[in-house]
Amino acid sequence: MKHLLITLLTLCLCLTACSGNTSDKSPASSYKVTEGITVSLDQDTYPLGPEAFTVTFTNNSQQILEHGADYMFQYYDGNDWINVETVEFYAFDMMAYIVQPGESRTLDAGTWFLQAPLQEGRYRITGSKLRVADNA
Predict the structure, then answer these.
(1) Which pTM does this prediction carry?
(2) How far apart are CA 63 and CA 112, in angstroms?
(3) How far apart are CA 131 and CA 56, in angstroms?
(4) How far apart are CA 135 and CA 129, in angstroms?
(5) What is the mean pLDDT of each run of 10 residues along the chain (136 residues)?
(6) DSSP states of 57-122 as a string?
């Protein structure tokens, strides 16, 4: 219970800083969080106006992965990852998910909070706060 409370409080603080890492230049729909833990989208590229993306958190490590339901989208313009514009006011449900070693979790990431429909192209999800903890 104490572990869950700490995780939820951490997620509350992280929601105020929901910005992604734009320094990674690689156009990948999947990225390695740490050895054995990956976050990936269900497609490499998307058609015009997708209403949702399917994100999979895969844990093939001996550690526990914790993540939230908050996220942002970035679009790859051929050179850089660009943050996708959002509406002025929006909020996410305060959720904390735990992915045990050897498990995967799928999350449907809707585009409801974006300022305009997404254009055709390559996207990635950023912003979900990930925490890797020792399996105690």
Answers:
(1) 0.68
(2) 33
(3) 15
(4) 19
(5) 42 36 53 84 84 89 87 86 84 83 90 86 77 75
(6) EEE-SSSEEEEES--EEEEE-SSSEEEPPB-SS------EEEE-TT-EEEEEEE-TTBSSPPPSBE
